[in-house]
Amino acid sequence: MAGAYVRGRRLREADVAAWMAAAAPYLPGPGGRILDLGAGTGRFTAALARATGATVIACEPSAAMRAVFPAGMPLIGGTAEHLPFAPAAVDAVWASQMLHHVRDLDAFARGIRHVLRPGGHLLLRGGFGPPEAMPLRRWFPDAFRDFGALLTDVTARLATLGVSRTARIQVSQRYAGSAAELVDKVATRSLSNLATLPDDVFDAGLHAVRRDAPRLGYPLDERLDLVVCVG
Ligand SMILES: C[S@@+](CC[C@H](N)C(=O)[O-])C[C@H]1O[C@@H](n2cnc3c(N)ncnc32)[C@H](O)[C@@H]1O
User: Fold this and answer.
1) CA torsion, points 114, 192, 220, 175, in degrees to nearest 10?
2) CA–CA dist 26, 159 (Å, integer)
3) For the segment 167-226, what is each residue's pLDDT rounded down to a tens digit?
4) β-bridge partners, 230
5) Which residues touch 217 (CB under 8 Å, ≥6 apart)?
6) Which helix (DSSP H) or strand (DSSP E) does residue 227 occupy?
7) How many whole angstroms from 101 Cα to the centroid of ligand 1?
8) What gap in Å lies between CA 195 and CA 134, rounded to an integer?
9) CA torsion through residues 50, 53, 55, 59, sign
10) Which terminus has fewer CB within 10 Å in the chain: N or C?
11) Pocket test for ligand 1, best of 11, 35, 60, 98 (most atoms within 8 A of CB)
12) Does any ligand 1 atom lie closer than 6 A to the CB of residue 78?
């Protein structure tokens, strides 16, 4: 699973750099502390450290994901709902494509309020636009939920605790540079939207991707959001 994630969710260095540039105004510099929440396989952890000079601590509940995490970076097991940190322990929380996994949004909001120092930033990275805008939706029409509603819900809960939404920035990133890359990435089934489909629905979608991929224009890019909240 974690191996498929690394292959299917890979990003070009230029795309990671674009995310770091968008996030930079809200992140601390050397001497600061950033929590990479739901860090997965560490896709952004080292980049956050390199871009800022801050100490980055990754927190990830899945043992399988932690097992392929790069060595040498602080990594602890834990969930957003039960964060194993002291109050006001970090200057910023980077939460990339993990919000839709959270079961208890009230506990998530309380955890953010607890761990973030006053005036610190929460950065929520994800696809919070309309599901129709997702590049894979044409082949998997039932796979993409409206994460915009989830964002509205969680930001309302955060606001009651004094963590207020201040910015929403869109960043473009490459999904696939060629037909072969498109098919390879989809076949990993590493997007949770695809992983939860019934097998026959996924197989039919993948068959259609293989059929259509050679006729598409490349690169195939997608736009995701960086939502910034200040606590
Ligand atoms: C789609 S992955 C994103 C990983 C990484 N942030 C990235 O952008 O590559 C979602 C991650 O959230 C983690 N996760 C699931 N439930 C969580 C929770 N309640 N609290 C924190 N992380 C959670 C999963 O184990 C998974 O590694």
Assistant:
1) 60
2) 18
3) 999 999 999 999 999 999 999 998 888 999 999 999 999 999 999 999 999 999 999 999
4) 121, 164
5) none
6) strand 220-230
7) 7
8) 16
9) negative
10) N
11) 98
12) no
Q: Within 9-146, where are the H helices?
A: 13-23, 45-52, 63-67, 105-115
Domains of the chain: 2-176+221-230 (3.40.50.150)
**Tokens at residue 97, please?**
């494509």
The residue type at 65? M
Rounded to a whole number of angstroms, the CA Rg of the chain reads 18
Amino acid at 167: A
Q: Report the length, in residues, of the chain.
A: 231
Other C-beta atoms closer than 10 Å to the C-beta of 208 total 14
| Distant-in-sequence, close-in-space partners of 22: CB < 8 Å, separation ≥ 6 | 169, 171, 226
Q: Judge whether 99 and 153 are in contact, CB under 8 Å.
A: no
Q: What are the tens digits of pLDDT across the range 80-132?
A: 999 999 999 999 999 999 999 999 999 999 999 999 999 999 999 999 999 88
Close Cβ partners of 125 (under 8 Å, ≥ 6 residues apart): 19, 94, 95, 96, 97, 224, 225, 226, 227
117: nearest Cα among 47, 32, 228, 45: 32
Q: What is the pTM of this model?
A: 0.96
Distance CA 31, CA 29 (A): 6
Both structure tokens of 160: 């009651």
Q: Which residue has a Cα nearest atom 14 of ligand 1?
A: 38
- Classify the C-alpha dihedral 88-92-85-80 as positive or negative: positive
